[in-house]
Design goal:
The chain is built from 3 helices and 7 strands, in the order E-H-H-E-E-H-E-E-E-E. It has 168 residues and is of the alpha/beta class. Strands 1-4-5-6-7-2-3 form a 7-stranded mixed β-sheet.
């Protein structure tokens, strides 16, 4: 949520029980050539872990997987999208019971910026699904800020910019 939270309007895609067919997850392991690691080396286990966690985020959107988001989002997590902010609890609610159903989600053009026990991941989250207004495809430009606490990476803040349809 992001993606992606949204990436979490990611939840923009979540309504329990609305998936008629098995959801398709576009997310796949990120090839080394698709990700840029800044302040990291290609062999950096932290960077590889962060890329996997970003993919876990996209997969969790499709499956409305609240447990994965509870694992990924740090206590005190804050999400901003355009002109609004949401707390961790609001994001979790939207992911599990929001009005939209995410049918596919994938990350693109990820960059990992490492700063010791903190990292920023930037990229694109592409989300497809349906909601009250009909079918949608949304592109989010995102920045996720991760912190390693007690040996585990958790996202502490996420910002998404929903690209307007006329600019795609």
């Amino acid at each position: 949520m992001r993606r992606r939270l949204i990436t979490i309007l990611l939840p923009a895609g979540l309504a329990a029980g609305h998936l008629a067919a098995r959801p398709r997850v576009l997310s796949r392991p990120i090839a080394q050539s698709e990700a840029t690691l800044r302040g990291c080396t290609r062999q950096d286990a932290d960077a590889r872990t962060l890329l996997r966690l970003e993919d876990d985020w996209a997969t969790a959107l499709v499956h409305r997987d609240g447990a994965t988001f509870r694992r990924l989002l740090a206590d005190g997590f804050i999400y901003t999208e355009d002109d609004r902010t949401q707390s961790r609890d609001a994001v979790l609610h939207d992911v599990v019971a929001g009005p939209d159903t995410v049918e596919a989600a994938a990350n693109e053009d990820l960059d990992v910026h490492c700063f010791g026990t903190t990292a920023a991941v930037t990229g694109w989250l592409i989300v497809r699904g349906r909601g009250p207004g009909g079918r949608f495809e949304r592109r989010y430009r995102f920045t996720d800020t991760w912190a390693r606490e007690h040996g585990r990476w958790r996202v502490v803040a996420a910002h998404d910019y929903l690209v307007p349809v006329e600019h795609r």
